[in-house]
Write a structure and sequence with these properties.
By secondary structure, the protein is an all-beta fold. The chain has no helices and 18 strands. It is elongated and about 90 Å long.
């Protein structure tokens, strides 16, 4: 049991933040009559965050409870600062690069059997702001030259807010006559906002035959388990404020594209005979749930109704996919 009275001093804030930063950089160079080079980079990052309030009594000007997952997972293979630093040079040249980056976690916020009274605002949220990126590129020069470059990035995390039973939340002080004031807001949110970026690129220069395969792929969740975002309000709760906003949302942004080792240029494949195969894509497996049971909005005893009640669930994704190549000679390109 916790009792806090900050009505004369200001804000009560409860925070839980898990931040994960994972970075890998790999560089390779090979030269010879027959030059073969390959790099494989795999990077997994995960973190958990949680806020739990049980049998709490809090009175303050503002009350805030935030649980946040924040972090990045980044792999760079074969690239220097803005230009190719990894090269394979020889009469017969082969290059292989595979980069995989994944970021995941669990984020929960729970409130049970508590009494929260704020003069102005009550804000409670569980927010995931995670990013994963992969950048794979290669430069190959020879009589016969080829490269396979693959980049993949995944994100899978849960964000859940549960308002258990027997909670009383009021934002706005009572008037002198005992009725509730016509102000104050209660905002409760669960949010997932992953950002995934993959770049795959090659620059092949051959006096004979050149061939390249590049793949760039992003994925949120999986076919076996969706990324989950949920807001649950159980029976027996009371919300009193001019504005009550209950929201669960997923906002994924995925970018998968191709470029040369110089990121300002498209992939280059130049030879007497050249073949280029490009594949890129983005997948989104995401579920958003809002489950609100029987609850009381406003307080009839204080002649207070909620002016604006918003209960919202939103699931959105922005996918930016671009496939392009420049080839010379007797050319074939498949995108």
């Amino acid at each position: 049991n916790t009792t806090l009275d900050a009505s004369t001093t200001g804000t009560v804030t409860v925070d839980s933040t898990a931040k994960t930063t994972a970075t890998a950089n790999m560089l390779g160079v090979a030269a010879g009559a027959v030059a073969i080079n390959g790099n494989v980079g795999v990077l997994d990052a995960a973190g958990n965050a949680a806020v739990s309030m049980n049998a709490a009594t809090i009175q303050a000007k503002d009350i805030a409870a935030h649980s946040k997952l924040d972090g990045t997972s980044t792999i760079t293979l074969n690239l220097g600062a803005g230009a190719a630093k990894s090269a394979t040079v020889g009469a017969v040249v082969g290059w292989g690069g595979f980069g995989y980056s994944s970021i995941a976690g669990s984020n929960t916020l729970k409130l049970d059997n508590s009494n929260l009274h704020a003069e102005q605002t009550i804000a409670m949220d569980a927010v995931n702001d995670l990013a994963a990126s992969v950048n794979v590129a290669a430069l190959s020069v020879g009589f016969v030259t080829g490269a396979i470059q693959i980049s993949e990035a995944d994100a899978s995390a849960t964000a859940s807010v549960t308002i258990g039973s027997k909670n009383t939340l009021q934002a706005g002080n009572d008037k002198k006559d005992g009725t509730a004031a016509d102000k104050g807001s209660i905002q409760i949110q669960a949010k997932n906002a992953p950002k995934l970026t993959t770049h795959s690129g090659i620059e092949l220069i051959g006096l004979g035959v050149t061939g390249g395969v590049i793949k760039s792929m992003t994925q949120v969740g999986s076919s076996k388990k969706d990324m989950e975002t949920s807001l649950t309000v159980q029976d027996g709760n009371q919300f009193t404020a001019a504005v009550v906003d209950l929201d669960a949302s997923a906002e994924a942004v995925e970018t998968a594209d191709f470029h040369a080792p110089d990121a300002a240029k498209p992939p280059q494949n130049v030879g007497v005979a050249s073949l280029q195969v490009n594949y890129n894509g983005a997948a989104d497996y995401s579920t958003v749930k809002v489950d609100v049971a029987s609850a009381q909005y406003g307080d009839a005893k204080k002649s207070k109704t909620v002016d604006t009640l918003t209960i919202n669930g939103a699931n959105s994704v922005i996918q930016n996919i671009a496939a392009q190549s420049n080839s010379g000679g007797l050319t074939g390109i498949t995108n």
